C-alpha cells in the first residue's frame, strides 16, 4: 500500500530502527506474539506502540505496574494512574503498561523467561516501526562487596565464568553472542545519580547466573555441595574480575539488544552484601525503598531526554 511504502521510506531516513535478524519473518503473513496476547492482524501495533522511546523491563509484574504509575506522575501526564491498564491482561505470562513514550514490562525470573519476552518485545518494536528506542532493565541483585541498597549500573554483563558473553544452544550447537551494553547510556545514568545524590551508585560488572541458590554460591539452598571457604573464594574471584553484583537476566538481555541494534542498560539495586550472608533479611519497607532506586534513576534519565528538566 501507499501508506506502507511511505512508512518504509520514512524509516529508511532514520538509522536507529529496531533490527530483527530473521529473514523468515518477512515471509509470514501474520505474527502472533503469543506470550503478550498481541498480533499483527489482531492489533494495530504501529498505532498502539509507534511512539515508544523508552522501554523498562523488570522481573516482577507488580513492580512494573508501580513503575508505570510512578513514571506517569514524574512525566506529569494527563489522566488518572488508576486507569493505566495491563496491555497483556489476556495472558498472565507478562504484564505490560504504556505511559506516553514509556513501555513498562515484566519479564519473570531467569534467562529463559526474559529471552522469550525479549523476542516478542523486539518483534513488537519492529512491527510498530519504533526507532531511537532505549531499553533499561531495572532489577534487584546480590551485591559483591557493596553496602546493601547500592545501585549498580552494569559495565559488562558476564557469565558464571566471568566471560562477557552469552551462550545459547541452537540446533544442538552452542552459539556465542557478545554482551556489550551502551556505555553512553551508562555514563549518563551515573551522571543522573550524582545529580540526584539520593543513594550510592557505582558502575561495575554484573554476573548473570542460571540459579539463585547454588548457582550464585549460596549456602542456604535445598542442595549445597561446597564449603563456606569455597563460596568466599568464588566471590573473591568474581570481585577481582570487576563483578559488583549478581542477578539472573543481564547476559541474554545485553546480547539480544546488542544483536538487534538497540541501546540498552542494566540498573540493579543490591539487596545484600554476599560477603556478609545469603539470606535477604531487610524489612519489607526497606526492600521496597531499595527497589525504587533504579526506577528513580531511570525516571530522571527519561525526564532529561524529554527536556522536562
Ligand atoms: C534478581 O532477582 C531475581 C531473583 O530473586 C532474579 O530475577 C534476578 O535477576
Ligand atoms: N537477585 C538475585 O539474583 N540474587 C540476589 O542475591 C538478590 C536478588
UniProtKB/TrEMBL annotation:
Keyword Transferase recorded: yes
Gene3D superfamilies (alphabetical): Nucleoside phosphorylase domain
Binding residue positions for phosphate: 93, 137-140
Recorded superkingdom: Eukaryota
Domain Nucleoside phosphorylase: 53-303
Catalytic reaction annotation: uridine + phosphate = alpha-D-ribose 1-phosphate + uracil
E.C. numbers: 2.4.2.3
Pathway it works in: Pyrimidine metabolism; UMP biosynthesis via salvage pathway; uracil from uridine (phosphorylase route): step 1/1
One Gene Ontology term of the molecular function aspect: uridine phosphorylase activity
Keyword annotations of the record: Glycosyltransferase, Transferase
PROSITE patterns xref list: PNP_UDP_1
The UniProt record lists the keyword Cytoplasm: no
Xref: SUPFAM superfamilies: Purine and uridine phosphorylases (SSF53167)
A Pfam family that the UniProt record links to this protein: PNP_UDP_1
Residues noted as binding substrate in the record, renumbered to the chain: 216, 218
BP GO annotations: nucleoside catabolic process
Family: Belongs to the PNP/UDP phosphorylase family.
Role, per record: Catalyzes the reversible phosphorylytic cleavage of uridine to uracil and ribose-1-phosphate which can then be utilized as carbon and energy sources or in the rescue of pyrimidine bases for nucleotide synthesis. Shows broad substrate specificity and can also accept deoxyuridine and other analogous compounds.
PANTHER family per the UniProt record, alphabetical: URIDINE PHOSPHORYLASE, URIDINE PHOSPHORYLASE 2
Name of the protein: Uridine phosphorylase
Organism: Umbra pygmaea
Amino acid at each position: 500500500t501507499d501508506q506502507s511504502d511511505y512508512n518504509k521510506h520514512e524509516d529508511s531516513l532514520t538509522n536507529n530502527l529496531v533490527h530483527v535478524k530473521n529473514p523468515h519473518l518477512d515471509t509470514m503473513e501474520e505474527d502472533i506474539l503469543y506470550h503478550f496476547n498481541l498480533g499483527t492482524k489482531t492489533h494495530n501495533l504501529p498505532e498502539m506502540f509507534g511512539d515508544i522511546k523508552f522501554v523498562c523491563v523488570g522481573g516482577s509484574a507488580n513492580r512494573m505496574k508501580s513503575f508505570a504509575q510512578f513514571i506517569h506522575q514524574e512525566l506529569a501526564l494527563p489522566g488518572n494512574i488508576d486507569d493505566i491498564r495491563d496491555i497483556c491482561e489476556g495472558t498472565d505470562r507478562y504484564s505490560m503498561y504504556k505511559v506516553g513514550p514509556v513501555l513498562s514490562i515484566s519479564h519473570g525470573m531467569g534467562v529463559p523467561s526474559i529471552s522469550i519476552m525479549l523476542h516478542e518485545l523486539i518483534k513488537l518494536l519492529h512491527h510498530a516501526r519504533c526507532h531511537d528506542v532505549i531499553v533499561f532493565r531495572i532489577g534487584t541483585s546480590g551485591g559483591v562487596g557493596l553496602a546493601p541498597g547500592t545501585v549498580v549500573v552494569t559495565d559488562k554483563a558476564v557469565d558464571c565464568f566471568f566471560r562477557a558473553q552469552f551462550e545459547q544452544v541452537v540446533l544442538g550447537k552452542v552459539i556465542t553472542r557478545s554482551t556489550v551494553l551502551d556505555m553512553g547510556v551508562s555514563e549518563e545514568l551515573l551522571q543522573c545519580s550524582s545529580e540526584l545524590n539520593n543513594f550510592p551508585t557505582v558502575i561495575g560488572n554484573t554476573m548473570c547466573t542460571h540459579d539463585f541458590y547454588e548457582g550464585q554460591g549460596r549456602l542456604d539452598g535445598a542442595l549445597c555441595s561446597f564449603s563456606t571457604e569455597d563460596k568466599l573464594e568464588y566471590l573473591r574471584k568474581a570481585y577481582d574480575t570487576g563483578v559488583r553484583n549478581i542477578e539472573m537476566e543481564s547476559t541474554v538481555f545485553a546480547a539480544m539488544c546488542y544483536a538487534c541494534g538497540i541501546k540498552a542498560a542494566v540498573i540493579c539495586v543490591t539487596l545484600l552484601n554476599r560477603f556478609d550472608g545469603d539470606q535477604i533479611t531487610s524489612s519489607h519497607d526497606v526492600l521496597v525503598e531499595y527497589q525504587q532506586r533504579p526506577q528513580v534513576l531511570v525516571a530522571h534519565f527519561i525526564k532529561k531526554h524529554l527536556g522536562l528538566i
